[in-house]
Amino acid sequence: MKFLLVFDFDHTIIDENSDTWIVRCAPERKLPNGLRNSYQPGHWTEYMGRVFVYLGDNGVKEDEMKRTMTTIPFTAGMIDLLRFIGENKELFDCIIVSDSNTVFIDWILKAAEFHRVFDEVFTNPAAFSSTGYLTVQHFHAHHCAKCPKNLCKRKVLKEFLDKQLERGVNYTQIVYIGDGGNDLCPVMFLKKNDIAMPRQGYTLEKKISQLAQSLSPVQCSVLVWSSATEIMSYLKLLIKE
């Protein structure tokens, strides 16, 4: 009996958006209007690439970025939840599927000593170039019209589950914890026995309730949370069963 926990990262594990937090490193902690207005819907990764070039051009180095990123607060109750999962790893496989990037997530999890809680992290690959600039790439290519160009979380989840099945791992239940519009696609992939846990007041919760109102509800159960202690209470019930 094993459960799969799937976490989004921004506004779910951490209480901020890691990509917008990095702007604190910019001169006067803001971006020029031309750069800010250059974002085009569905092309966030390209936009962040331009942000990283701007930071590099202004002499912002890796250690300063790291210091800034590791000050992001975790969501209420999340530290206790991640400790609880870490203590019960024999029952839970745990992955992150995020539109952030490998460098930011790695820094934040390692600084808080939570990197061992997660079996895999699926996010946009990032690295520092030989000139010290942070670069980011698309996670994969896909054909899903609902998702941003660089990442379809449903595709990630489906491929992960297929790979686990090949290894003989079949999950009793999938618990999906997220907040954003790009979490709806994987939630719609979940089955009747699974559970979606959207964060209260965020886009995912609103989109799930709109679907219910238009009489095409998601198949899985839905449990809204505002503090991660509510998620922990649910997981404790699960393992008692």
TrEMBL record:
Keywords, alphabetical: Hydrolase, Magnesium, Metal-binding
Pfam family membership, one: Put_Phosphatase
Active site positions: 8 (nucleophile), 10 (proton donor)
Transmembrane segments: none
Binding site for substrate: 19, 99
One MF annotation (Gene Ontology) recorded for this entry: metal ion binding
Cofactor or coenzyme needed: Mg(2+)
Residues reported in the UniProt entry to bind Mg(2+): 8, 10, 179
Family: Belongs to the HAD-like hydrolase superfamily. PHOSPHO family.
Designated name of the protein: PHOP2 phosphatase
Source organism (scientific name): Rhipidura dahli
Gene symbol of the encoding locus: Phospho2
